Amino acid sequence: MYTQAPRQIAPAMVPSALNRRHLLAGSASALAALGLASWSTGAAAQAKTLPAYVAWKDANSTIVHSATTIETKRSAFGTSVITPAEQLYIRNNLPAPDASIVADRDAWEISIEGVGNPRKVSLRELKTLGLETVAMVLQCSGNGRGFFPSKPSGTPWTVGAAGCVVWSGVPVRAVAEALGGVAGGMRFMTGTGGEKLPDGLDPKSIIVERSVPASAMADALLAWEMNGAAIPLAHGGPLRLIVPGYTGVNNIKYIKRLAFTARETDAKIMSHGYRISPPGGQGDPNQPSVQEMSVKSWINSPGPDSALLGTGRVQISGVAFGGLHAVRRVEVSVDGGKTWVDARFVGPDLGKYAWRQFVLETRLPAGQHVLASRATDALGNVQPQQRLENAAGYNNTSWSDHAVTVKVA
Q1: How far is CA 402 from the centre of its chain?
Q2: Can you tell me the distance from the alpha carbon of 351 to that of 43, in angstroms, rounded to the nearest whole number?
Q3: In sequence order, which residues have a C-beta less than 8 Å from that of residue 307 and are 6 or more positions away?
Q4: Which of 23, 52, 361, 365 has a CA that sits 20 to 30 A from residue 206's CA?
Q5: Nearest to 292 by CA among 207, 219, 216, 405
Q6: pTM for this one?
Q7: Residue ranges of the chain with pLDDT lower than 70?
Q8: Separation CA 65–CA 43 (nearest Å)
Q9: pLDDT digit string (tens) for 302-353?
């Protein structure tokens, strides 16, 4: 990791607040126009072509569910640690802004609030305040939802709404220090996205704005590079808030405002969206918010679509990660969880927020076998066998959901 010391910025005027209240009207038609009112599943989803704004992605490695939800095929993960941009999943709560915002990336401005000297800062200025790089798992909180028999609403992801990505940018803590430090009593770090909001809607009902504990600032970045290149528009360029260990929705794309606040935002995506609700229930502020990721693993090869395997030595491989904590152990079962054997890690260890590739070489006799993996993090938390049933299919971390059935000749 390479770090530059922060420098001080002279204070400037804080931009006026956004008009927070518009008349709520025509919401159904507006959402339909945005393509957010319905989901596609199954074979029909796989038959769709890549939307124009992600036409550069590898069509053979992805499953298109909708214009804003694109999954990485399990078979495409391979055995390298880093997920290439052309294979990485897409989950956008709103359509991407116009491509003009990446024409002059350095001119992009972000409002920093809740600090001693609040002001707007350009991306050009941010690049002078420090530099760090972090490898981390980016995962949609609904990853694995497609395994739920209750068929919760939302995209029916299997394992492909995740990837391991390298981000580069300025540490949020360095920006806060350069602007006079975080003001007293600020318990949360709140990020606001810069997507264009549809007309006729209350902004708070649709805006992508999330709050995480202020302690997350310790490792958070304002990032402008992904896997060594400028962040593509589809993944939040020119500037994205990166909060390692937290689910994807908390890593705000096109970030236009970063505020340290005394309370969580009252935007609907925070107050009612991404909440752990009981089956059949609706989200509300009293329920746990979807934030930190839990320990998780799955097998990529052989996968559920593998051809009939021949008898002899079989190499079982996959990925494991611990969310906020490093993954310390992965076990593999070839009999549906009756017995377990330790797998070994392969490839580089890129830090506690990245995933680790694991492998187990074994011999499988002729017949049908149920392959599964379970991970343990540095605190001793073990990936559970049973999923956490909830209304939206969030935080589904059970190893049994990800089990793979293979046949050996």
Answers
A1: 19
A2: 37
A3: none
A4: 52
A5: 216
A6: 0.88
A7: 1-47
A8: 10
A9: 999 888 898 878 999 999 999 999 999 999 999 999 999 999 999 999 999 9
